[in-house]
Structure formats: C-alpha cells, structure tokens
Amino acid sequence: MFGSDSVVSAVYKDKIHWFWGDTNKPSYPLGNFQVPGATSKLTDDPDVGVDLAYFVDGKGFAKQTMMMPGKGPTWMVSLVPLEGKLYASYIKIERR
Q1: Largest CB tally within 10 Å, which of 11, 64, 84, 94?
Q2: Is position 2 within any domain?
Q3: Any domain includes 21
Q4: Element (H, E) at 25
Q5: Mean pLDDT across the stretch 39-45?
Q6: Backbone dihedral region of 33: left (phi > 0), alpha (psi from -120 to 50 degrees) or beta?
Q7: What is the mean pLDDT of residues 49-71?
Q8: Given a cut of 80, is residue 96 above it in pLDDT?
Q9: 18 with 7: CB under 8 angstroms?
Q10: Largest alpha-carbon pair distance within the chain?
C-alpha cells in the first residue's frame, strides 16, 4: 500500500482508529477508494511512533470498510465515538 491520503481518526475502545480517502496499490493503477482503515495502540511516548494494524482483505490488501451506495469513491468526512459506537459521515465523489 502507498499513497494514502485525507486521514480521519478517533480514539475508540483504547485504540486509535484511522481511515483514509484513497489508497493506491503498486501492482494496479487503482487501489481502494472505499475508505481503507487501520488501528493503532495509544501511547504516551511520541518517540515510539505509530504501528498501524490495517484492516485487510483476503488478498492482503487494504479492505474496503465503507462501501456505500452510489457511483464513485466513498470519502469519510467525520468520525465520532458516541455512546459506545463509532459514527461517521461520508460523501460520494462522482467525476463529471
């Protein structure tokens, strides 16, 4: 995976949950445009860095986590933990 952009994140159940707009795939001109995601542990030590555990599909690539109805890529625009659940809003991007 490379070229992930537009991250949205939130702390939920003692982890940081990360979601991106688009993620490119080296072996194919298109990658995942349906909100790939990952989690990481919380840390108080910024020198440790971020160790992402990606959600992956059966082929080992970034899993689509938000395949919503409509044409075009799905982009998550907000993410909020509320009352024990994660809530998100999204938009569909259609090229004209």
Answers
A1: 64
A2: no
A3: yes
A4: strand 23-25
A5: 91
A6: alpha
A7: 88
A8: no
A9: yes
A10: 46
Judge whether 69 lies within some domain: yes
Measured over the CA atoms of residue 72, residue 33, residue 19 and residue 59, the dihedral's sign is positive
Rounded to two decimals, the pTM is 0.84
CA distance linking residue 87 with residue 82, whole number of Å:
7
Q: In total, how many domains does the chain have? A: 1
Residue burial 9-40, b: 16+ Cβ < 10 Å; e: rest: ebebeeebbbbbbbbbeeeeeebbbbbbbbbe
DSSP string for 35-81: --EEEEE--S-GGG----EE-B-TTSSBPPS---SSSS-EEEEEEEE
Cα radius of gyration (the chain) = 14
The whole domain housing 57 covers 8-92
**Residue 83 pLDDT exceeds 90:** yes
pLDDT reported for residue 2:
65
78 belongs to a structural domain: yes
